[in-house]
Write a structure and sequence with these properties.
Length: about 180
């Protein structure tokens, strides 16, 4: 009988993947802290793109641990692209898009950056790269086509925009 034991190979695929994930998390945390500092000090926030939430379609909440309070994980909304940085090339033009907002785990932080606390219809959202765009206008999936056909106000071609670096501005207080 031969017993096989798992061995850790230094520089192997698992280690490289773990290092890549760690770098991405560090990058996100550094970006988030930079934006938090600007918000706290009242500085003007410059982002790569501005969205306006027209209609919230769905909010997905799941518990972080068994038997815990469900937390918002992602939300889909119809948003109007109101402004984008002039140096950002791509297929996005001013128009209306279906946007998937990916909320990171909170880990007990009270941060409002990329969080669901201010998320609501009529709010403005500052978005930073990277984001993903998925052109679903040529998708063969009938369910995807059905969902997009329900919203006549969407800009053609139908693009799903997935964002994870964003800040939902608090509503302006009347003077």
């Amino acid at each position: 009988m031969v017993l096989l034991t798992a061995s850790h190979r230094r520089g192997g695929l698992a280690e490289r993947v773990q290092q890549h994930i760690s770098c991405k998390q560090t990058d996100f945390v550094l970006w988030k802290r930079q934006v938090e500092q600007k918000v706290e000090s009242g500085m003007k926030i410059t982002s790569d793109m501005q969205l306006h939430i027209l209609r919230i379609l769905h909010i997905l909440k799941t518990p972080e641990k068994p038997h815990s309070v469900p937390l918002t994980r992602c939300a889909s909304a119809i948003c109007r692209l109101t402004d984008r940085h002039k140096f950002i090339a791509g297929e996005l033009a001013t128009g209306t898009y279906l946007v998937l907002f990916n909320f990171p785990p909170t880990h007990g932080s009270g941060s409002v950056i990329s969080s669901p606390q201010q998320f609501g219809e009529g709010r403005n959202v500052s978005v930073w790269m990277p984001w993903q765009t998925i052109d679903v206008s040529d998708a063969g999936d009938a369910e995807i086509q059905r969902v997009f056909s329900q919203y006549d106000d969407l800009t053609s071609p139908h693009i799903l925009l997935v964002v994870s670096r964003f800040y939902v501005s608090a509503p302006k207080q009347p003077d």
